Amino acid sequence: MRIQEMHYLSPDLVKQIEEVVDEYAFGAGDLTPDTLLDRAIDLLPIEKQHTDTIRKRVEGLHYLSELLWNRALETGKLNRQQIVVKARLRPLSYYHYLTGSREPSNILLTRDDLLNDPPTGLVKLRDDILGLARVLPELQSESTATS
Q: What single DSSP character describes residue 25?
């Protein structure tokens, strides 16, 4: 699942997610990491009897986390591995075990495979978004302080 390959998100929804991230990144509103996640979840409701809404939420949260990753990397203060440590991100195998997934572990090898096991993907993405959202303001304040 790459950013360019949106199967479940409409262009309008993609734009709304980008606006939420921009608002958070630029500090325009009073968004905290938790409210950022809540607003994203509000944009991506799950409806009973519509399995595509689950995939839509996974794809939307994946896109949101990728936007946060890009913002964090754009600061140039830390590389990807340092961000993983600072945000306390865990590997997918941890979430596969944590959720008690019955899916084979080999179908969930990378973040691009999150649609193969949506329940595990949702738990992983939630933690990733909260971790990255906590680290991003700190990285951005460091980059503006040195500029």
A: H
What is the Cα–Cα distance from 6 to 59, expressed in whole angstroms? Answer: 8
Q: Is 34 left (phi over 0), alpha (psi -120 to 50) or beta?
A: alpha
What's the CA gap between 138 and 109, in Å, rounded?
Answer: 30
**Residue 78 has what DSSP assignment?**
S
φ/ψ region of 76 (left if φ > 0, alpha if ψ in -120 to 50, else beta) reads: left
Read off the pLDDT of residues 66-100 as tens digits, 9 standing for 90 and up: 999 999 999 998 999 999 999 999 988 888 888 88
CB 25 within 8 A of CB 140: yes
CA 134, 140, 143, 147 dihedral sign is negative
Angle between helices 33-43 and 51-74 (to 10 degrees): 140
Which amino acid belongs to residue 127?
A: D
Distance CA 87, CA 135 (A): 6
Whole-model pTM: value is: 0.89
By the 10 Å C-beta count (0-12 exposed, 13-18 middle, 19+ buried), 88 is classed as exposed
Cβ within 8 Å of residue 123, ≥6 positions away: 95, 98, 99
Q: What is the residue type of 105?
A: S
